[in-house]
Structures are given as structure tokens and as C-alpha cells.
Amino acid sequence: MLRRSSNSCRTALLSALFTTAxxxxxxxxxxxTPVSAPKDxxxxxxxxxxxxxxxxxxxxxxxxxxxxxxxxxxxxEEGLADASDIAAAKARLQRARAAVGVSRSTLLPxxxxxxxxxxxxxxxxxxxxEQVVPHGWNDAGLVFVDATWEIDFWGKNRAALAAATxxxxxxxxxxxxxxxxxxxxxxxx
Length: 189
Fold this sequence. Notes:
Helix content is 48%, strand content 13%. The chain is built from four helices and two strands. It starts with a helix and ends with a helix.
């Protein structure tokens, strides 16, 4: 029985060592690998799909006004104004833009100040003589000023800013896609 237990412990140990050795073989992308910037929507070849035809272009924000139908425009604008999906997309966009502001602030120094004013009644029976505090009151004031700046040696904060900026661009694209999807659904329905 003891031999079987010894073999199972040895097998478990060898399995753990083998797994650990395999993780050392995993390819890791270096941190300084350049990340390509996201392409602008105008650079995509949607208008090259049907040369000479406006049908291949990406629709503009108010594309439904091109039909000249006031009723359609009213329906689409009313639907976009009351849509919870649009409000949620706008909220995600605002949150992403706020994250960009927070990430940008880590690259800058910060300054803080605080103060304190205190007035205490002192006992003459403890440590303080009556000559030091003639009327029994001790006034004190303190002012604190501090400044901090995290120097970004290894680019952690710059990478966080780039990631937040990319997330904000993605949220903006998502908001535009939500608006386009909803407006086309209203127009086709």
C-alpha cells in the first residue's frame, strides 16, 4: 500500500514539473512590440467596392434625410431620441472618455494641500506650566503641501493611456454603429 502511494506522489510531482517546464516554452511577445494605431473609418475601401456609385460608401449620420421624406425623418429622429440602446452607448462612451482622462492624469504631476487649525484647553496639572499657556488655551495651526509625480520609466502609464484611448475609439465606433443600426431598422420597418 505504501508503494502505491509513493508511486502516485512521484507521478504527481513529475506531472507538475513537466507542466512547469512546458510553460517555459510558451512564446511571449516583447513589451516593446509596436502596436498599430486603429484605422480611420474614411480609409476603408467601402467606396471602392462599387466604383462610381454612391451606394458603396459608408452612410452618413443623417442618411435618411436624403430621401426627402419628413415623416421618415420624424420617425427616425424620434426613435433615436427615445432609444435606450443609444443612451447606453452614450454612457459607455462617456465612461471610456473619463478613463482616458484618468489615464492621462497619471502622466502629470499632482499637487495637494491641506490645513488644520486647533484650539485646545490645557490642564496645568499635566505637562504644561501656567507660564507657557497663560489663559489655559493652546492655539495651533498646521499647513501641509505635497507634490508627487510618478516618472514613467518603463511606459506603463503611456501604455494605459494608449489602451484607454483605443477603448474610447471602440466605444465611439460602437455608438455610431448602434445609431446606424437603429436608424436603419426604423427606416426599414
